[in-house]
Design brief:
This protein has 203 residues and is of the alpha+beta class. The protein has one domain: Sortase, Chain: A, CATH 2.40.260. It has two helices and eight strands.
Length: 203
Amino acid sequence: MKKIIKATIIELIVALLIVTIILIAIKLFFGQEIDNAILLVNQVAMKVENISEQRETQIDEANSKLINYPAYGTKYATIEIPKIDINLPVYFGDTLEILKQGVGHSSGSYFPGEGGSIIYMGHNSKSVFRRFSELQIGNEIKVTTDYGEYTYKIYDMQIVKETEVEKLPIQKEKEILMVYTCYPFVNIGHATQRYVVYAELEK
């Protein structure tokens, strides 16, 4: 009986080692493909109401440094978050194709320098926003556009439902950058929550 139990334990250990080796091999050779498959399932975009007021494509210097709006789908900025070693391109728009390239900018929100709500989003992949949980109040987010540099300081982080669009308010009283990604950060299947980072423009 002891020999049988011992042999069974050895077989279980060997089987566990084989499974571990196979999983490591899959991760090494197909890790990127797996991440891409998860990204396709975890679509980030939330529905944000369009700004009711009509904005002109030409803005004077007294209001902002933005002269012409970028075309939809084009890169117009980079976002840096030193705390988590992020330096990514920002594209105007929030389609799945845009989010594959970098960070998307909701077309229903304002641009940096306009003095209102700015909404950015990105996938929770390792190369984008998976390390959001490491961010703390007081950390800085720097956005460098074609027309100027803007630094924002984080003042809040929240986990919200994808349907809670009121958690991403569009307003013109204060320049606030809201950056979000799918939550949980490592998620299989459709993610119904978002992790939102709120940051205010530094004076």
